[in-house]
Specification:
The chain is α/β, with parallel strands linked by helices. It folds into two domains: 180 residues, Toll/interleukin-1 receptor homology (TIR) domain (Rossmann fold); 260 residues, no CATH class. It has twelve helices and 17 strands.
């Protein structure tokens, strides 16, 4: 992946008719590198076929170029009318081979910078084979959604490249920082006998009472896996994304009904504690360290789930979800039946827990590296669970301080705001007082939030 590097190695591919632009590109890269190397800690350097040693054997030039390409993590393409010279014994030109290699690299790593610049072509009724290939490639890059721009003059190209290089370096810097912070959060242990860190995310299936009313004996006929809540699915998407960012591939996603036999010797993430008895039992291992628990609170003769937040149970803050009030106020008169667009065009709030504990039990397997971890991601309602996954992906910078110690407990209370079919924001409210949560459940406050977002 790109963000494994703090060096940006840029391969420049070009035929002979844009050699002047190639020289401009190398000059621009040196200038941008001079300004960014110290401030952002990213070094850039270039490679292209003129950089080959003068004594490189002719029959190994392309092999050497291909080897150099594989060591680069960015690709810069310059084209005008030519598509490269076809060497004796070859069916395609060197430039074409470089482009094919770069496209393969891009397909494996979508984050790889692929910057393409085409010098403007004049209208030509008979463009010739090489110019036609240039036009076809430009259309292919458009189809694939790969970056490319067209320029008329050399100064215009210079300005374009300066801007685009700064954008690329800044994205690399942000990507690198995100990877570092997430790698500190996902400090997974490697048990003896494993070559990597095994990980399983565990979700509870939908309760039968929430399923469509039909014959229970027929419900599973059309199902391959246990039915999952939509919000849980969205959270798992974010979890998988962040794990892949830091390079973890050995990840399983399982229902609580299908846990591995060696579950206690695997890094675990437990989703949605209120609906998962097994997750609640696992949390008991950390009862002396946990700042949170889920409880049922009686309000106006109705039972409502809540988060009890605090190290001292006697003085714990009770956090209720205002989600039901938001839904009733905005959907109260909507008819049932199929989902309509208006159902999603609302504002809503919920609360969630994001936590990490180190499993220090002595009866676990010996570790090759690190320590086993238990992660808990749970909303009072499904919105909170979805928002917790969103927070991990979008608000990762908030984890920088909590993650400084690799085995330290992390426990966050999150407030999730939904707006018009997507997560709008997630905020850490771990240090808010009881009065804050009471106010957020006050009908007056809820009415005001709704009115502000109509």
């Amino acid at each position: 992946m790109l963000d494994l590097y703090r060096t940006l190695s840029i391969f420049i591919s070009f035929p002979s008719d844009v050699n002047e632009e190639r020289l401009i590109a190398e000059e621009v890269i040196k200038e941008v590198n001079f300004r960014c190397q110290e401030t952002l800690g990213i070094h850039m350097h270039t490679f292209s076929w003129p950089h080959l040693p003068a004594n490189t054997p002719e029959d190994t030039i392309q092999q050497t170029i291909n080897e150099q390409m594989e060591q680069c993590n960015a690709f810069l393409l310059l084209l005008h009318k030519r598509y490269g010279t076809i060497e004796p014994g070859q069916s395609i030109s060197n430039t074409e081979r470089e482009i094919e290699c770069a496209l393969k690299m891009k397909s494996k790593d979508p984050d790889m910078p692929f910057l393409s610049y085409f010098k403007e072509l004049s209208i030509n009724a008979d463009p010739g084979d090489q110019e036609e290939k240039v036009r076809v490639l430009r259309d292919e890059l458009t189809r694939r959604g790969i970056f490319h721009k067209t320029f008329k003059k050399k100064n215009e190209f210079r300005d374009m490249l300066v801007h685009d290089l700064y954008q690329t370096v800044l994205r690399l810097h942000v990507s690198f920082r995100k990877r570092i912070i997430l790698s500190h959060f996902w400090q997974l242990g490697v048990p003896e006998g494993s070559s990597n860190a095994p990980f399983v995310a565990i979700y509870p299936p939908v309760d039968r009472k929430f399923m469509p009313q039909q014959d229970p004996d027929e419900w599973w006929y059309d199902r391959l896996v246990p039915y999952m809540v939509f919000e849980d699915f969205k959270a798992l998407q974010k979890i998988e994304k962040t794990l892949r960012i830091v390079g973890y591939r050995d990840c399983q996603f399982r229902s609580v009904t299908n846990l591995p036999d060696d579950i206690q010797d695997i890094n675990r993430l437990w989703l949605c504690l209120p609906r998962s008895i097994k997750a609640q039992k696992q949390l008991l291992l950390y009862s002396e360290r946990a700042r949170f628990s889920f409880a049922t609170t009686a309000i106006n003769n109705f039972n409502s789930r809540s988060i009890q937040w605090g190290t001292n149970k006697e003085s714990a803050i009770s956090v209720l979800s205002p989600l039901s009030q938001y839904l009733k106020l905005q959907r109260g008169e909507m008819p049932g039946g199929p989902w309509k667009l208006a159902h999603g065009k609302i504002i809503a709030k919920d609360y969630a827990i994001l936590a990490r504990f180190t499993d220090n039990r002595e009866d676990r397997k010996s570790m090759v590296h690190g320590t086993l971890k238990d992660y808990f991601l749970a909303g009072i309602r499904g919105l909170g669970t979805w928002g917790g996954g969103w927070f991990l992906d979008r608000c990762y910078h908030a984890l920088e301080v909590p993650c400084k110690e690799p085995d330290a407990d992390i426990q966050l209370l999150l407030e999730v705001t939904y707006l018009n079919e997507s997560i709008h924001s997630v905020n850490d409210v771990s240090n808010k007082p009881q009065e804050y949560f009471q106010n957020e459940n006050d009908p007056v406050t809820i009415h005001r939030h709704i009115e502000e977002n109509v």
